[in-house]
């Protein structure tokens, strides 16, 4: 069952992503449609780790 508790937050203009106004770069990434609240139970966590590593290596 998808976790829809965070969807309204990210659709609003005051989302955490929108508040990153002084960041040199930022990237919104959605992996899958089902989200867990902890990374240890996230079934797509390896993809998340890879994407974060790629983002960090761009510097």
Number of domains: 1
- The secondary-structure element order is HH
The number of helical segments is 2
Please give the number of β-strands. 0
What shape does the CA trace take? Answer: flat
SS strand fraction: under 5%
- What is the CA-atom radius of gyration, in angstroms? 13 Å
Portion in helices: 25-40%
Mean pLDDT: 76
What about the largest sheet? none
Assembly of the depicted chains: single chain
Distance between the termini: 37 Å
Which stretches are low in confidence, meaning pLDDT under 50 for 5 or more residues running? Answer: none
- Computed structural class: mainly alpha
Set down the secondary structure blueprint.
Layout: H1 7-11, H2 45-57
Key structural traits:
single chain; 59 residues; mainly alpha; 31% helix
What does this structure look like?
The protein is mainly α. It has one domain (7-57). The chain contains two helices and no strands. It has helices at 7-11, 45-57. The longest helix has 13 residues, at 45-57. It is flat.
Short summary:
By secondary structure, this protein is mainly alpha-helical. It has helices at about 5-10, 45-55.
């Amino acid at each position: 069952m998808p976790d829809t508790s965070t969807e309204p937050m990210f659709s609003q203009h005051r989302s955490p992503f929108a508040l990153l106004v002084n960041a040199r770069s930022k990237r919104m990434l959605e992996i899958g449609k089902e989200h867990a609240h902890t990374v240890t139970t996230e079934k797509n966590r390896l993809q998340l780790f890879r994407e974060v590593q790629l983002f960090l290596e761009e510097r």
